[in-house]
Design brief:
- By secondary structure, the chain is α/β, with parallel strands linked by helices.
- Helix content is 43%, strand content 14%.
- The strands form four sheets. Strands 1, 2, 3, 6, 11, 12 and 13 form a seven-stranded mixed beta sheet that branches. Strands 4-5 form a two-stranded antiparallel sheet. It has a two-stranded antiparallel sheet with strand order 7-10.
- 44% of the residues are buried.
């Protein structure tokens, strides 16, 4: 990462001559956007690019697919070299770090650090001049994930928002609880076995996000709370012990929908389900960025690149359900649109529509997951699996050691 930071610093020298806010287009009527796209998003971007070109015949779009598989590491390194030399893409539309992060190579493994290092162009001037921007209904809490020192550098495209899903007739209401630990305690005290299994499913599938937000890049401050980490681990231990005692009865047969969008989307078609967004251990109802777009500081076609990115975020593209997009081209079954109107269009006449939109409206913050987010989540999973596997729980002393280790990981990220 230190080597990557060095080339980013070198790249800033290049950008001094180009600037970041003006229109850097050529004098020709023909404009080309050179776009770097994650393999995961390539088909979606290709579809939308075709429509954009039909509406903007003077624009050519050159797509380059970037695989994040380990065996394609050489291509990734070459792309970083191109960025350093000013030959890189005008526009990036990329997948953010998620549950599979350890098995992937990301062009920008820490997006927040990339913003801080000057890789991306500020979008503020374009947003101010864009008469169509006000029609794009993206909550401020989501947009803030792409800001640094009050300026917008990245536009989130899709997010993940873990939801706690129960049967309407047999639910435990934890909507007023302040932290995830409070929610867990209420569920345990309720004696509701279905809710107990759903909260188990929730933290099993959402474990990477349970301690967010843990970093403040602008203030260079670690927000990760070691005491809350230990408290959360103790709550997980208590619930896992309770579930272990129930093994062999109906609890193992209960339907589980809760957690990240991958597990929740399929339930949108079902009747009589309740959806709640739980706060994290840090006390906020938090989404995380799944994919995002950013204009390069070195882009030759900054304004046109921004225009395509904004086009990507329009309600029609985000929601689908039109003649051009019979299905949402954005949502691949595991993400949610950031445009609320697009999300509403995507949900259309699904039974869960109003309840899910209410969950969307609960979002208090949105973050990019870091390397340490995964480490913290995997350690919490081990707390659970140890008990389910029949072993004795971790001691308080061991949990405090884990908390110290996690804190140091977050400190290292800020120092990179």
């Amino acid at each position: 990462m230190k080597k990557f930071s060095l080339f980013l610093a070198a790249m800033l020298t290049v950008t001094i001559f180009g600037g970041c806010s003006g229109n850097q287009s050529s004098h020709s009527d023909e404009k080309e956007i050179y776009m770097c796209v994650s393999e995961y998003l390539y088909k979606t971007v290709e579809t939308i690019a075709q429509v954009y070109k039909e509406e903007h015949p003077g624009v050519t779009i050159r797509l380059e697919m970037l695989s994040e598989e380990q065996e394609d590491e050489a291509k990734l390194k070459q792309m970083k070299t191109d960025i350093m030399s000013g030959k890189g893409p005008d526009l990036f539309i990329l997948q953010a770090r998620g549950a599979e992060a350890d098995d992937k190579n990301f062009l920008f493994p820490n997006v927040s650090k990339a913003i801080e290092s000057g890789v991306f162009c500020s979008l503020d001037d374009f947003l101010k001049k864009d008469k169509n921007w006000e029609a794009i209904n993206i909550p401020e809490a989501i947009l803030k994930a792409g800001t640094y020192n009050g300026r917008q550098y990245i536009l989130p495209i899709t997010i993940d928002l873990p939801m706690f899903v129960q049967e309407e007739t047999d639910k435990v209401d934890v909507s007023e609880e302040k932290t995830l630990m409070d929610c867990m305690k209420v569920i345990q005290e309720s004696g509701n076995k279905k809710a107990l299994n759903e909260i188990d499913s929730y933290y099993l599938t959402s474990r990477l996000q349970l301690m967010e937000s843990a970093l403040d890049y602008e203030e260079q401050e670690v927000l990760f709370d070691k005491g809350k980490y230990v408290e959360l681990a103790n709550c997980l231990t208590s619930i896992s012990l309770q579930i272990a005692e129930q093994q062999g009865n109906e609890s193992s047969e209960l339907s589980q929908h809760s957690g990240t969008s991958f597990f929740v989307n399929s339930s949108f078609e079902e009747e009589n389900l309740d959806y709640q967004v739980l706060p994290t251990a840090m006390g906020k109802r938090t989404a995380c960025v799944q994919s995002y777009g950013a204009v390069s500081s070195n882009a030759k076609e900054k304004e046109t690149s921004y225009d395509f990115l904004r086009f990507f975020l329009d309600t029609e593209r985000q929601g689908g359900n039109t003649t051009k997009y019979p299905d949402s081209p954005i949502v691949a079954g595991t993400d949610y649109p950031v445009n609320r109107d697009g999300f509403e269009s995507y949900l259309n006449e699904k039974p869960a529509k109003e309840k899910v939109l209410s969950c969307f409206d609960c979002i208090e913050e949105c973050v990019f997951l870091s390397q340490a987010s995964r480490a913290a989540g995997e350690q919490l999973l081990e707390v659970r699996n140890r008990i389910i596997g029949g072993e004795s729980p971790y001691s308080e002393k061991e949990l405090k050691i884990f908390a110290d280790e996690m804190y140091k990981k977050y400190e290292m990220i800020l120092k990179e």
